[in-house]
Amino acid sequence: MRYAETRQLLGTVLVGAYYTDLGLSSEKISGYFDRPWDWAKIVQHQKWIIQFSSIDDPLIPIEEARYVHEKLKADYHEFEDQGHFGRPTFPELVDALKPRLQSIE
């Protein structure tokens, strides 16, 4: 998301997105969360945003993902049983991404 604040992109796929340091010192020390997000620029700098989250994600609270969705108005896909999406295939991502890529041909 930080990259999209300053650069033009075709689009972004967010999986397990969050916007705070989650109270973790390892995240805080990264500096990634030290400044406010420029939500408007993130949206303006791309044609589309697809977002995936899961209620049972053990790392990212669903409130974080929902807040990101609220700010970005992403094409939002919320699951109940996908955890942190650590699986070998992700057909839902392909289904969501395919029409966007076909539109640029």
Question: Can you walk through the features of this model?
Answer:
It is a single chain. The chain has about 100 residues and is of the alpha/beta class. The protein has one domain: Alpha/Beta hydrolase fold, catalytic domain (Rossmann fold). It has helices spanning about 1-5, 25-30, 40-45, 60-70, 90-100, and strands spanning about 10-15, 45-55, 75-80. The protein has a 3-stranded parallel beta sheet, with helices on both faces. The protein is globular and about 45 Å long. The mean pLDDT is about 95.
What order do the helices and strands come in, and which of them pair?
Layout lengths: L1 H5 L2 E7 L9 H4 L10 H6 L1 E9 L7 H11 L2 E5 L11 H12 L3
Parallel strand pairs: 1-2, 2-3
Overall 3D geometry?
Answer: globular
Enumerate the spans where pLDDT stays under 50 for 5 or more consecutive residues: none
What's the total number of strands? 3
Distance between the termini: 25 Å
Query: Can you tell me the CATH topology?
Result: Rossmann fold
Q: Rg, please?
A: 14 Å
In CATH terms, what is the architecture? 3-Layer(aba) Sandwich
CATH class: Alpha Beta
* Backbone structural class: alpha/beta
How much is the average pLDDT?
A: 96
CATH superfamily: Alpha/Beta hydrolase fold, catalytic domain
Strand order of the largest sheet: 1-2-3
Share of helix, binned: 25-40%
Percent in strands:
15-25%
Q: Total helix count?
A: 5
Q: How many structural domains does the protein architecture include?
A: 1
Tell me the series of helices and strands, N- to C-terminal.
HEHHEHEH
